[in-house]
């Protein structure tokens, strides 16, 4: 299985350990993984700000780097959703459709494509799970509490395979953390208040870590935790699934 590793720019610059953990995890699970060295930003920040018509260069570069892979996998639901919904340049319709249908968020790929039902992972800590909006409402990675439908979570399914991990869910399991891309810049006060509300529910559960599938949301929560002087840390799903003690 030939996998192209798609690493969003903020992970490349600020959280390279998440990229490394994703690469190592996919290799452990039997994938042939390649990292295109010329990949850059997918264009999501511009689209978030209402300028998706200016992302042609990002589209062309993305297609050039990832057109030859069977699957494209990223440890970021928001960037994956951007490619699925906004990729429109760089190839003909058939080529663009192929890329849009072969790009996956990490947990989605592990559950739906690799059908992972066992992991050699150990993480003996009390962990709170944060569900990011893009993954839940855009990629259908988990059920939504406002719908009368069977509950499911691909992230929770994977975390339940980790030895020693004590998973704690907040009361309002799928509430937004307030990050929202450029929203946290233009609506800073609202964004921070939403993040504090999210953290408060995790602290009630006395967690040691807050885990999620989007480092952008975790970065937002991490900043608030540090300013509060909290000992609680944030950690990406890939880092937990790749942990062996």
Describe, in short, the structure shown.
This protein has helices at 9-14, 16-28, 44-48, 56-66, 77-86, 93-102, 106-113, 133-138, 154-159, 183-186, 188-204, 215-227, 237-241, and strands spanning 2-5, 32-34, 71-74, 103-105, 126-129, 166-168, 209-212, 233-236. It has 245 residues and is of the alpha/beta class. Helix 11 (188-204) packs across helix 12 (215-227).
Structural account:
The strands form 2 sheets. The protein has a 4-stranded parallel β-sheet with strand order 2-1-3-4, with helices on both faces. A 4-stranded parallel β-sheet has the order 6-5-7-8. It has helices at 9-14, 16-28, 44-48, 56-66, 77-86, 93-102, 106-113, 133-138, 154-159, 183-186, 188-204, 215-227, 237-241, and strands spanning 2-5, 32-34, 71-74, 103-105, 126-129, 166-168, 209-212, 233-236. It folds into 2 domains: 2-113; 126-241, Rossmann fold (3-Layer(aba) Sandwich). Helix 12 links the parallel strand 7 and strand 8. By secondary structure, the protein is α/β, with parallel strands linked by helices.
């Amino acid at each position: 299985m030939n996998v192209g590793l798609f690493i969003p720019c903020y992970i490349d610059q600020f959280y390279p350990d998440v990229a490394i953990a994703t690469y190592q995890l996919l290799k452990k699970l039997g994938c042939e993984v390649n990292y295109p060295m010329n990949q850059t930003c997918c264009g999501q920040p511009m689209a978030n700000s209402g300028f998706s018509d200016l992302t042609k260069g990002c589209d062309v570069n993305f297609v050039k780097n990832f057109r030859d892979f069977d699957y494209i996998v990223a440890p970021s639901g928001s960037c994956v959703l951007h490619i699925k919904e906004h990729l429109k340049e760089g190839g003909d319709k058939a080529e663009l459709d192929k890329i849009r249908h072969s790009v996956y968020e990490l947990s989605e790929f592990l559950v739906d494509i690799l059908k992972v039902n066992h992991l050699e992972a150990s993480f003996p800590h009390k962990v709170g799970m944060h569900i990011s909006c893009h993954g839940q409402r855009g990629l259908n990675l988990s059920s939504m509490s406002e719908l009368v439908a069977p509950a499911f979570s691909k992230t929770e399914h994977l975390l339940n395979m980790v030895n020693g991990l004590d998973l704690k869910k907040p009361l309002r399991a799928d509430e937004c953390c307030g990050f929202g891309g450029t929203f946290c810049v233009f609506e800073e006060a609202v964004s921070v208040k939403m993040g504090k509300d999210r953290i408060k529910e995790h602290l009630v559960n006395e967690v040691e870590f807050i885990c999620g599938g989007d480092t952008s949301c975790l970065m937002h929560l991490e900043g608030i935790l540090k300013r509060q002087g909290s000992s609680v840390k944030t950690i990406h799903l890939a880092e937990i699934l790749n942990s062996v003690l």
